[in-house]
Request: fold
Amino acid sequence: MNTTRIPAAEITGPYGALVKRFSKKLLGRVPEPLGVYWHNRPVLKATMGLGAKAQKWDACDPSLKSFAHMAVAAQIGCSWCLDFGYFQAFNEHLDIDKAREVPRWREATVFTPLERSVMGYAEAMTQTPPTVTNEMFAELLEQLGNAAMVELTAFIAISNMNARGNVALGIESEGYADSCELKPLQTPGLRSLA
Reply:
């Protein structure tokens, strides 16, 4: 286990048993962030609920959302989000060779122009203050359409919330990608996820 800034709480009670059982079934273990967020269950429930709802959105291509999420995580420096995002991409049968290159997408040659635009947009939204331009937005809107653009934007915003929260709380990679024997992520500037 990692050393978080707030130690993980013991997950107890009927709701805790349900959460632990679901986590173990889905992931093989209880993720460390769950114990940290357990200190404030209304926050945990809201965060998990929003994440579960966002996973059901279907106006935007799942690969584009996955790449956007990982681009946010790489820029913020959330090793947990990158590790878990890579694990999720594997389990959702997305292009793993592309997913592992997201942290260095500008140098990688595997991405389409649309994928590059999405990751550039994700990074522009993540800057403080955001650096999204009218031209950048219009280019993506033309390719994706209104519904997918709204969804992508909201997904990137949620990714920012989660990544920034994890970094601030000291939550780091737990080796989800390793459990699937995935090739290491290309993570310049972050501690190795291998």
Observations:
- The radius of gyration is 17 Å.
